[in-house]
Design brief:
Blueprint: H1 6-15, H2 18-32, H3 35-53, H4 62-74, H5 78-84, H6 92-115, H7 133-145, H8 148-161
Helix pairs in contact: 1-6, 1-8, 3-4
Biased composition (Polar residues): 114-135
Region (Disordered): 106-136
Pfam family, one: COMPASS-Shg1
Length: 162
């Protein structure tokens, strides 16, 4: 698949398994950090306050209590703050690793297109060569669409969606 926009890049990145690997690495790093205790304490405080403010919650079934408490916790931006404050996200080597993974994903997409047989290729696509005016017109748009900030925005959205 030829990657033409940030959404496609993120989709291919997820299919490659890199997204899940990065997510696991970030979670593992967070769990080993000293910030974990503060995070757990804040979640515990929010849950206790909710239970204290509504005593009838205790008589509800466990799944209903859990749903209520998760909804209450979601009202506070504690997860978002934990993500923003994650030192690993500003580590140059971690960022370089993400960039390398994204570049491998893009390269794999180009390789697949170059190695596709006519029956495997998408029938409505024009050949990508310098003689194709549609291709030349799309290059600036593709470069604008795949800027690091656009990719980061899509990646952040995908990460928060999990």
């Amino acid at each position: 698949m030829t990657i033409t926009n940030p959404t496609q890049l993120i989709d291919e990145f997820k299919k490659s398994g890199e997204f899940d690997r990065l997510r696991r690495d970030l979670l593992s790093h967070f769990q080993r950090s000293e910030r974990t205790e503060g995070f757990k304490s804040r979640v515990d405080d929010i849950a206790r306050q909710r239970l204290f403010s509504d005593p009838k919650l205790i008589s509800m079934p466990n799944d209903a209590i859990q749903r209520e408490l998760l909804g209450e916790i979601d009202r506070y931006p504690i997860v978002e703050r934990a993500v923003v404050d994650a030192p690993l996200l500003s580590d140059p080597s971690f960022i370089a690793g993400i960039r390398a993974s994204l570049e491998r994903t893009m390269s794999a997409g180009r390789s697949e297109k170059n190695n596709a047989t006519p029956s495997q290729s998408t029938p409505n696509l024009q050949p990508c060569d310098s003689g194709n005016p549609s291709f030349n017109a799309a290059i600036p748009q593709l470069n604008d669409a795949l800027t690091p900030s656009a990719v980061q925005k899509e990646f952040d959205h995908a990460l928060c969606a999990r």
